[in-house]
């Protein structure tokens, strides 16, 4: 009886809290890069941009999870292969549709992370970056 | 409000393409983070970045691979399969967010440790450099003391021996004129003459060494002094296939020196280089100015046998020589050292056994123009 049950919404809450924590840590990371003037090197500047984009992505993901809870099941109909369509009303539908394309944020984030790491590596190897 | 219908095709395309790109770039990021750590395994910043990138890598693979798996499972009609997979990958993503976030929160501490380590390393390096400089100064002071003591001793001994030697040599040469050219007596007298002349040479060098304190300085053109010495030695050296390469600076700044003593130094260094070369070789002589504009550098580089590391610190010691008995007094470099020091300069050697040696004499440039 000492163990606690974890029913349906607790998984979503844990996931959302994890997003909040990730957002906060990326913000702190970005601040420290600025404070220690590491961003004067191009490699670290690109890593900071990646961290900022990850903050945006986290906000996007949290918003999508919240909208999925608010919108009724009738809003999503059809199957994947026949042309999955979104049926809805007004602003929330457009917002959900747009925010679902989160790869438009997280792909640039990982590209900037890669460019930043590559710059640091080339500088370490003494090659022009 | 009328219901709207939006096709999910663009979302599907962005999802599939985005997931594929995320996987590719995740591998590239991990590769570069590993390369950074391999390059400098003890740098805590690179270790930190590797942890961070590894966490993000797990997140990307978990999420992107599961999205691609979703379309595969749903197209095959395995809706319940996708339902199970999304629960697991969603949980993994949650845990990875927390891990990556926690790693990030350590960044400031890690960076602080890194800065502290770098500062400590610089302090140790500076300390080592100061110790090395102090040891070099002590060695030079000991050398100067040694030379000063020996100078005083040499002057006294040389004067006492010089006259008797002169008498022995003079009478030997007189007797040689009276004796027939062939015969045992003539041969014996020639041996006495040869060894007496050796002794006189040693005494002359000692006297030169002890007189190194008396210097008469006048405005001097070091390139001209070098050329005068070159004109004497060049032809003789070429007979033994030792060639001299000249790289003299066009215009040297004004310098005050004792011309005779400078010629003596140049002659000593040329002879030293020539004797170090066994067989055909090259001596490169050059003049230049140090980057700080404070000194003229005269450099003698030979392609000789080089100086072993265990004796290089002794070569400026009086009477130190590696030549057979009778072939040298071991005073040439000591005399040269004394003369250069008397001109407020310095003389240094670099050598690689089997490759050759470079002797460099540093002389200060005059601060006021000579009249």
How would you summarize the topology of this molecule?
The complex is a heterodimer of chains A (129) and B (371).
Chain A: H1 8-35, H2 42-70, E1 76-77, E2 85-88, H3 90-99, H4 103-124
Antiparallel strand pairs in A: 1-2
Chain B: E1 4-7, H1 9-39, H2 44-75, H3 79-105, H4 107-178, H5 184-210, E2 218-220, H6 222-239, E3 242-247, E4 255-257, H7 259-276, E5 281-289, E6 295-302, H8 332-342, E7 346-352, E8 356-364
Parallel strand pairs in B: 3-5
Antiparallel strand pairs in B: 2-4, 5-6, 6-8, 7-8
Helix pairs in contact in B: 1-2, 2-3, 4-5, 6-7, 7-8
Structure write-up:
The complex is a heterodimer of chains A (129) and B (371). Chain A has 129 residues and is mainly alpha-helical. Helices cover 69% and strands 5% of the residues of chain A. Chain A contains 4 helices and 2 strands. Residues 77-83 of chain A have low confidence and may be disordered. By secondary structure, chain B is α+β, with helices and mostly antiparallel strands. Chain B contains 8 helices and 8 strands, in the order E-H-H-H-H-H-E-H-E-E-H-E-E-H-E-E. Chain B has helices spanning 9-39, 44-75, 79-105, 107-178, 184-210, 222-239, 259-276, 332-342; strands at 4-7, 218-220, 242-247, 255-257, 281-289, 295-302, 346-352, 356-364.
